[in-house]
Amino acid sequence: MKTRKLVAESDGERLDKYIAQKETDLSRSFIQALIDSGHVQVNGKTAKPSLKLKNGDTITIEIPPETPPELKAEDIPLEIIFQDKDLLLINKPPGLTVHPAPGHPDHTLINGVLALEPEMEDFDDPLRPGIVHRLDKDTSGLLLVAKNRETLANLSAQFKERTVRKYYLTLVKGELHPAEGFIEAPLGRDPQNRQKIAVVSNGRHARTGYKVLRYIQGYSLLEVKLETGRTHQIRVHFAAIGHPVAGDAVYGQKETWLKRQFLHAHRLSFTLPSNGQTVEFTSPLPPDLEEALKILENPPENIFKNI
C-alpha cells in the first residue's frame, strides 16, 4: 500500500477537488473511489468528498496495490510484416493501444498477439508480455514483439545500446529550417501537468534527427530518426521549437482535415536474435495519412479556416 500526504493551504476547498488539483496523475473517479472506500483520511479520520478543508488539515491518501487484470486473447486483425520463432514485427494501425493499462484492460495489440501466439512464453510483466518498445495509440507503424524471454532481453539490449535504427514520417506545422539537423533537449514530466512530457533541465537526454522531404502549404514533411527513445519524444521536441506535429491535440492543435496526429513509424533496422543478421523493414504511409497529404496539396476552399 502506497501512502501520500498533503497539507491544506487554505480554508473552504472541497476535499475531492483539492486532491484532484494536487495529485494530477489520479483521475477524479479514482479519487472518488478512494474516498468512498475509506482510503482517504483528514486529520486521521475518514471523510466525505464534500468535506470543506481548513488551512493546515493533514490529508492522508492510501493507494492500494492494483490487481493486474488477466490478459485474454482477442481476435484483433493485425498485419504481420515479419515473424520467426523468436519475434513478430507488426504494422500497428492507428487507434490501437499497444498494451493494457489502468482504465484500458483489453482491446489492445497484445490481446491480438495472444490470439496469434497462444503458446507465447510467460513474461515478468503480465500486462506487457513481449513488449520491447511502444508506439502511441494514434501513431501507426512498425512495432516489435518478442515471443520469449531470451528474445526480449536481446532486443532490449539492442535498443539500450542504440543499435536499432528507428525512422518515422511526420508532418509538422510551418516550414522547418534548416532542412536537415538535430534537436537535442532533455525530456521529463511536465511540472505543470504530470500527464504530459516537456523539455526540462533535469530531464533525460534526448536527441532527434530530421530531414525535410518537402514543404507543403506551410507544413514540412519530414523523415525523423530517433537517436533516443523517450516518451512522446518526436511530438515534444518539434513542439518545443515551434513546429508541432500536425493534428497533435496534446502538444499542438487539431486540424480540420486530419483525424489524428501525423506520425508513422515507417522504417526499422535491427539484428535478428536467431542468427545475428541485420535486417531492415519499411512500412509505407497508411491510407489515412496519404489522403491527408492529397487534401493538403490540393486543399478545398476554407480548409485552413481553423488553423
Q: What is this structure, in a nutshell?
A:
The chain has six helices and 15 strands.
What does this structure look like?
The model has no long low-confidence stretch (mean pLDDT 92). The termini are far apart. The chain is α+β, with helices and mostly antiparallel strands and 307 residues long. It is built from six helices and 15 strands. The strands form three sheets. Strands 5, 6, 7, 8, 9, 12, 13, 14 and 15 form a nine-stranded mixed sheet that branches. Strands 1-4-2-3 form a four-stranded antiparallel sheet.
List keywords for this structure.
globular, 307 residues, 9-stranded mixed beta sheet, 4-stranded antiparallel beta sheet, 6 helices, alpha+beta
Q: In one word, what is the shape?
A: globular
- Residues in helices, as a percent range: 10-25%
Radius of gyration: 23 Å
Helix-strand pattern:
EHHEEEEEHEHEEEEEEHEEH
| Count of helix runs | 6
Average pLDDT level: 92
Q: What kind of oligomer do you see?
A: single chain
Largest sheet: 9 strands, mixed
Task: State the total count of DSSP E strands.
Answer: 15
- Between the first and last Cα atoms, what is the distance in angstroms? 47 Å
The secondary-structure class comes to alpha+beta
The residue ranges in which pLDDT falls below 50 over 5 or more consecutive positions are none
The portion of residues forming beta strands comes to 25-35%
